[in-house]
Design a protein that fits this description.
Distance between the termini: 18 Å
CATH architecture of the largest domain: Sandwich
CATH topology of the largest domain: Tumour Suppressor Smad4
Helix content: 25-40%
Strand content: 35-45%
Number of domains: 2
Length: 281
């Protein structure tokens, strides 16, 4: 057994590299060979290992999925970032020691991967309001969990203006002004916002949540409801599932994020790739 420990030394303000070194020490204690790969060392050598353990947050995972989207080795994810939504989905809260034992004794299971234009994602794509929030986060200091996301959400609640979006998905075709459009593979992102509470990362479909135009007062009132994932039955929410969706808007480019990474485009084509990767969880 040889394990590639794939990490980003900047993730979690240094937390990821410290955790990587701890994981390597623990593996050494049980006579398992491992090698740490920092972000500047990621390459084809990782394919030669039996497993790849990713140490970081959702940003590190997104970078890994886009660089190694064809990898067939069993994967695991360790809590080493500021945003750890996918980690929480797979492992909830587990000590490093327990997770190592659990991963070494468990069987890999398939996980779906999403694709937005040419970018791959694990958690989801946020269009409109969410995209504007992530754009404002660029080049700012990130705090643990949802703190950074929440601060910038509050700023945009007062000033963001809804746009008209055209949405096509199979026989489902709509045109309306939407505050935000969430296309999710996992239940949560943004450091703990349950945007798609019914989503499962292994069901072969995307969960799509459309939030219609809202006044500032209603945005403030319903934000905690959306954060807790209690919003799907609200009158201004449209919810459905699909394996492919196309989103476009006349005029300026669409603001969006793909697993927290900012993206602009005239048109977004988002689809699910069922059972594309295998995680040990």
């Amino acid at each position: 057994m040889r394990i590639a420990i794939v990490t980003n030394s900047m993730a979690g303000n240094g937390k990821a590299i410290r955790l990587s070194l701890k994981i390597q020490r623990l593996l050494n204690n049980i006579k398992i060979d491992s090698q740490i790969f920092r972000e500047t060392e990621w390459g084809k050598a990782i394919y030669q290992f039996d497993q790849a353990w990713i140490v970081g947050g959702d940003g590190t995972l997104n970078y890994f999925v886009n660089q190694f989207n064809d990898i067939k080795k069993p994967l695991s994810l360790f809590d080493g970032g500021t945003g750890n939504d996918f980690y929480a989905l797979l492992y909830k809260k587990m000590s490093v020691e327990n997770q190592i034992q659990y991963v070494l004794q468990s069987t890999p299971k398939p996980i779906d991967v999403g694709k937005c234009n040419d970018q791959f994602f694990i958690n989801g794509v946020g269009v409109g309001f969410e995209g504007a929030v992530v754009k404002s986060l660029l080049n700012t200091k990130k705090f643990n969990g949802k703190t950074s996301f929440f601060i910038h959400i509050l700023k945009h609640i007062f000033f963001y203006k809804e746009r008209t979006f055209y949405i096509q998905s199979g026989d489902h075709s709509v045109e309306d002004k939407y505050l935000m459009i969430s296309v999710a593979n996992g239940k949560r992102y943004g450091g703990g916002f349950y945007v798609a509470p019914l989503a499962m990362p292994n069901d072969g479909v995307l969960d799509i949540i459309l939030v219609k135009k809202l006044s500032v007062l209603k945005r403030l009132w319903f934000l905690p409801t959306i954060e807790k994932g209690k919003h799907l039955s609200l009158s201004f929410i449209e919810y459905f599932q699909s394996n492919k969706i196309k989103i476009f808007s006349k005029g300026t480019s669409i603001q969006a994020h793909v697993d927290g990474e900012y993206l602009e485009g005239k048109e977004l084509v988002i689809e699910i790739l069922p059972s594309h990767l295998h995680f040990i969880y």
